[in-house]
Task: structure prediction
Amino acid sequence: MNILLSPDSFKGTLTSSEVCDIIESALRNRIPDCNVIKLPAADGGEGLCSSFANFIDGEWISAESKDPFGLSLRAEYYMLKSGAAVIETASCAGLPLAGDRADPTVTTTAGVGMLIRDAVNHGAKRIVLGLGGSATNDCGAGMASELDFRFLDKNNNSFVPVGGTLIDVEHIIPPEKPVDIPVVVACDVTNPLFGVDGAAYVFAPQKGANAEQVGLLDRGLHHMADILKRDLNFNSENLPGAGAAGGLGAGASAFLNAELRSGIDIVLDESGFDKLAANADIVITGEGRFDSQSVNGKVMSGVCRRAAKAGAKVYAVCGCASNDADPAALGIEKLFVSSDGTHSMDELQLSCRQELFDAASALAEEIMQLN
Result:
């Protein structure tokens, strides 16, 4: 029996690779002769580089970058042997790096631009950029500044905009030599750049913004949309995902001519998932919490959709599940849950491995009975 494992991480407790290992151990304990293929998955957030490193040869490259406040730090990206550089926004502009000082009116994506420049200097043939987990709301202006775009204020002075000063941008001057390799952005939200469903109103409060700051940020993004349209002939209005990562979705498209795609689809394409699923009897996926959002653009929905096309049965093992969760909506045969969702994070750190093993063992018993 061929079983393909492709879960997401259980955020805060287990990486996707660790989840794979625990499920595999439970399966082999109950079904010794099964053939298990592990394909740890990720979307556009943290873990994107590690997900690629799990199934594609390459090397980790450490480079000078900047943190969300523009201070120097070293960050890593993953260079595939094919020449594709996989870069995570979270590695240098991530919310955990901002800590209790998180404030999207002052944070920057400059570090992202530095990593892109380093990858180009290392001979990258294309860039895969993950947007998830950012602490920023600067529309990618910091990134663009590191790639030689110039932003001018009303007095024609150059400056590097942050979220709170986007409103001061009067002109954008593109570089003489822009980045000229293909850029694909792993983006798993469809929010517009500005407005009630845009970057500021939906995501900035999670990054430390108060109500007054949200209004300022949204006005800045609206203003930037006008400037981008006038100076770069870029229209963000009909771009799903423009508001991702504080407008970095729009920025990557405008400044790098990037293509925005579902992060999980990028990972599954690069890993050869479709071929593996076509040869699998069963696909097992999972995530830390299964809820109503799991059906929209996340790892599990992508895995289930592609597995269904390949004709494989899909089962899921999750840390917990909300009452509104509907596994059938994703074509999941049966959902196995390892916890009731009442544990604290400290308690989960101690119990998650055994609880996941027990849930995966119950799944293995189910598979045995069906076969």
